[in-house]
Amino acid sequence: MAVVANTAGLEVDEVELEQVRDAQIEFLNYEGPVDRIDTIESIRGIGTYLGTRITTPGDVASYFGRYRVIHAVDPSVLVGLDADIVIIEPDAQVNHINNLRHIISAYLEAAYGYAGNDASTLAFFTTIYNAVHRQDVPFFDARYKPVVTRHLSPENAGLSTRYYEWPGVSRIVIPLARGAAPGVIGTIDPLQLTDPEVIAELRAQPDMGIRERKDIIDLMERVVAAREEREEQERLALERERRRLEQERLERERAVEAPDEEVEPPEEPIAPEEAPVEEPDETPEPRVVDEPVEPLMTEEEREARERELAEREEALERDVQETEEMLDRVRELYDDTADDQHALLTDELRRAAEAARVVPVPFLVSTARTAAGVAISRLVGVHPETGDVLVRSDSRGVYGRRIVSSAGEVTAIVDTSDGPRLVTFERENLSSVRTGHDEIFPGAALERRGDDVFTVVRVNGAWYLGRFDSALTLIEHSDREVAPATHIVITENRVYAEIPDGSVLSLELDDLGVRW
């Protein structure tokens, strides 16, 4: 695969997601040929499926045995963190960090109601957090509850930076905290996500994490506004409860201290013969019914209510303090991000001006190998003096370790959507300008003479030595088949190649006619 509930009272703990170290994290992704290409929707569908099946502590959701989530929550243990553990099973095919983040992002949206951009930000930090703490079992033991750590080992804790160490040996820990509900903007605490160590990690990235930091600032502003509103509502509710308790206390004191009312003697009865006869009213007085009076609380109930209010007031005080800290952090992030963005733009302008004065040296950086052992490389342009990478091609991958250059252009055998083809790039920016139509053997030798390129081409199901012009059009090919992985040697007027039986074939340079 090129890509992959409502849980009241639990929140993803962004506090933990941001306690990461200072080292820069770089993920190695698979960049070779793929058997199939999955859509973003199908990849996200994995996370959505898992997220909708996590509702209660201890739930385990599985996606066809390839991905699994453990809702590792134990309300009976008060010390330590709960977590969701995303397990990449041995049969999983995810091999690019962006696709893994798509899965996590969709999971957070489905399980906890996060909006898309916020979920993506959290997914980004989740992968960094788990890569930094990869295989650090003492770290997890010190912070998480046993319900979490019993699923982790020195072999699988956290996320490897190498895609081939994900299936079966990586378990992604998403820290959860109590105190908020799905759909509440403050469920994840961005104050923790902006820990100085996390910001240092972002600043170590080539782009200094400017976009991610802006996303966090935006999230923090919305969280602060929502927190302030909730805190004001709680403050008013506590004031009402305090007044009610005070009124209850006064009524209780009056009931205890009031003297018994004196009983008046009954009036003398009026003799029947002297009793006046009253005429009945035309409209009788309506009967007044006393409203039920709420009984007073017992002393035990009142003390329990007092303790509850005291706990709520302490919690409110802590919340207000955290909100103030968040406001301070927002101001700090604004200043630091603005300074870094200015520095980054200045550096980019300097590098652009410098790059304009030099011609990058085409260079192949190895990234992977095919099943047949052929190297897959990324074409980059490096500074001739410093070795800094100035430009990168957007190609899917270059087969082999050979490129040929001409004036202002570079040609290579590239993995295209149609298979291995000759592709020519502009040397300065490495953008592709031409793509050949003929199938080339992956990892074939590649040579240039003048404007022509020589390599191994498939014709009618067999492999031949081919000659291509500057437009990458096949001009001619040898009459005899050659070994696909043949070495190619060009002399003044001849071309030498190997044939399938291991013999060396001599061809005319002009028309590839057989000499012997």
Characteristics:
single chain, alpha+beta, 3 domains, 10 helices, 20 strands, disordered N terminus
Care to describe what's here?
The longest helix is centred in the middle third of the chain and has 59 residues, at 299-357. This protein folds into 3 domains: 10-205, no CATH class; 207-252 and 318-357, no CATH class; 361-508, Methylamine Dehydrogenase, Chain H (7 Propeller). The strands form 5 sheets. A 5-stranded antiparallel sheet has the order 1-5-4-3-2. Strands 6, 7, 8 and 9 form a 4-stranded antiparallel sheet that branches. Strands 10-11-12-13 form a 4-stranded antiparallel sheet, with no helix packed on it. The chain is an alpha+beta fold and 516 residues long. The protein has 10 helices and 20 strands. The chain is elongated, with a radius of gyration of 37 Å. Helix 3 (97-112) crosses helix 4 (116-132).
Q: What is the element string, with H for helices and E for strands? A: EHHEEEHHHHEHHHHEEEEEEEEEEEEEEE
Question: Please, how many domains?
Answer: 3
Give me the side-by-side strand order of the main sheet. Answer: 1-5-4-3-2
Number of helices: 10
Structural class: alpha+beta
Backbone shape = elongated
Tell me how many strands there are.
Answer: 20
| Cα-atom radius of gyration | 37 Å
Mean pLDDT: 83
